[in-house]
Write a structure and sequence with these properties.
The protein has 363 residues and is α/β, with parallel strands linked by helices. The chain contains 15 helices and 12 strands. This is Asparagine synthetase B.
Amino acid sequence: MLRGADPATVRRAVERADPLPGTHGFAGALDGRLVRDVLGRQPLFGTPENWGFSPDDAAGATPVPAGHVRERRNGETVDRRVWSLPDPAVSTDDAAALAAVERAVRESVTAVDGAADLAVAFSGGVDSALVAAGVPDAPCYVAGFPDAHDVAAARDAAAAMDRDLRVVELDHDALERAVPEVVAATGRTDAMTVGIALPLYLVAERVAADGFDRLALGQGADELFGGYAKVVDPADDDRVDATTVRGATREVIRSLPGQLERDTLVLRAAGVTPVTPLLSDRVVGAALPLPGHLLATPDERKVALRRAAAGWLPEPVVGADKKAVQYGSLVSRELDRLARQAGFKRRMDRHVDRYVESLVDGT
């Protein structure tokens, strides 16, 4: 009935309106109502009478908003916000703030059960390398076209960390086959969603085929720790409304529920359960008080997270650049190429979206 936490913990979190009760996120049915944690780390759909963890589990189901309880009142289904993202005071002690991040990250990644059914999605960046460091016996996987940045970076990082790396080499046939499956899982055909979801789906599909049930990922690190270029100088970046690094970072964090819903549904459709230690409540709680200069500067992003990794990971891995998965894998580039080859030219509105729709429709 609940995923991610036991009923007693969630019941206390509801009663106390505690948004970070020490879990990795939760969702499900509790006392005749539906509950979904503050960051939406577990997708949830439907009504208290007809619900499930995917849209397919309940016909016409809509997602329960993150941080809400969905319940019946006076014969109607209503959503009631119970949890909001905490807004702690900005830390004025850099050493203490960095120590809290390092402690939270290490505790979270080393607490992952490294049983034989676990693999790691590994791009060679500091996020996935920290996750991999917590489960030293788990194999690492990366997906990308042969000349992709992520493949080269993962090989370098795996060699530096002495890790077993398995490369899922992508090609056009793999993309065209997987597009309808990704669309079926997400319910979306826009190029951005599909471009992000495809490499996740294809690496997870390989992981499942190799006999692993769980896939550990570095999800959440970019959002929590200032990993996006748009948070560096937000006052001059029209991609965010905020004008400070901290404000822009919180704005990005609020986008997590939609992203996590997409990624979780895709990974489950491929046959694995995602494991996201960098999204644990303890890591979220350590990230939120960080001042702007420990999040992102013109010279460095994810400052505090890299400090937490120093001394544990090899220096080249700590400082490694990371591209968004759709670009680092070259999936976005190759989707555009396939669309143009199929007659959907760039001068056309939404040319990649229309190509994706053609694959789904079989036209």
